[in-house]
Design goal:
alpha+beta
């Protein structure tokens, strides 16, 4: 009689440990583009091949006002369709696997604006193969810029493969 109860207790402890070990996604912040502000409510992080070196990976972090489907995360056309239909306002940051800035892209109003490493700040909290977290901030207000934007957000997300 004691064996089933003990087994149930051990199983409960192990399942609780497994759930708590997983990182849940969260983001807090805003994205302002051409004077319109969007609350950032969703974050997804994804490991991708480095476009300049096939032997390396990058981590892509997408912060958005609405959920981004798996299809949109893996298909640039599906992502652009959401932007064209004005169903998504998002900013993407890319990092090396160490958490160093790599670049990014702003998605807004039927357009995208690519920016380079060094044009945004990142305060790394945790950055490894399982979790990406920290605080990003960027501001583009130069007269030559295609879009004027500002973003400040703190995020945590499990890294998807």
């Amino acid at each position: 009689m004691k064996t089933p109860v003990l087994f149930l207790c051990v199983l409960t402890v192990l399942s609780g440990t497994s759930v708590s070990a997983q990182t849940s996604a969260s983001v807090s912040g805003t994205l302002t583009v051409d004077g319109k502000t969007f609350k950032l409510l969703r974050v997804r992080a994804q490991e991708r091949p480095n476009p300049f070196d096939d032997s390396k990976k990058i981590i892509r972090v997408v912060l958005s006002d609405v959920p981004v489907s798996d299809k949109a995360m893996n298909d640039k056309d599906a992502l652009e369709d959401l932007i064209l239909d004005e169903k998504l306002h998002a900013i993407e940051f890319t990092f090396t696997t160490d958490g160093e800035t790599f670049g990014g892209e702003l998605y807004y109003n039927m357009m995208s604006y690519i920016f380079q490493a060094g044009t945004f700040d990142f305060e790394k909290k945790t950055f490894n193969s399982k979790t990406a977290s920290g605080k990003v901030s960027a501001k583009e207000e130069s007269k030559s810029a295609e879009m004027h934007f500002k973003v400040v957000a703190t995020f945590t997300a499990p890294v998807e493969r």
